[in-house]
Amino acid sequence: MDNIKKEKFDSMPKWLKIIVFTVIGLVVALIFGFVFGVFVMLLWNYIMPQIFQLPYISYLQGVAIFLFFKILIGFNLNHQDKKIKHDRIIKDRNNLKKYRYYDEWWNKEGKQSLSNFAEIKSKSSAIEDKTITEEKRDDNKI
């Protein structure tokens, strides 16, 4: 019996699958909205009138508050953030493997490369400073 259902589902066109899953998702979201609306209503009616002297709310107002906050905060339906974070961790681990050669490279080439780079930058910086000083001097003469 299950194989027949699976074959029927697999043979459905992609657009129909999208519609089916969208309808199912909306129905589930509405059910969760109504269930959590009860909790929001009960918590609100227990806490808010006593602390802030706010009025009691009805069940539909609890549902509306729940949906309002879900819109503000977000629904996070696809959970892609967790997958992206996991992929980034794996990638970082793989990148760290090449750093085991860092000390050897630093002793052979790194120190000299850094010194050469710093020397080039200091020369170009000195030329820029000299040019700026001359421009300021020329501006003061005018």
Poorly predicted parts: none
| β-sheet strand percentage | under 5%
Helix amount: over 70%
**General form:** elongated
Radius of gyration: 33 Å
Largest sheet: none
Distance between termini?
95 Å
**What is the helix tally?**
5
Main structural class: mainly alpha
Mean pLDDT: 78
How many strand units?
0
H/E element sequence? HHHHH
How many domains, as an integer?
Answer: 2
Descriptive key words:
single chain, 142 residues, mainly alpha, 2 domains, 5 helices, 86% helix, 0% strand, elongated
Notes on the protein architecture:
This protein is mostly helical. Helix 2 (14-52) packs across helix 3. The mean pLDDT is 78. The longest helix is centred in the C-terminal third of the chain and has 40 residues, at 102-141. Helix content is 86%, strand content 0%. It contains five helices and no strands. The protein has two domains: 1-77, no CATH class; 81-142.
Task: Provide a brief overview of the structure.
The protein has 142 residues and is mainly alpha-helical. The protein is 86% helix and 0% strand.
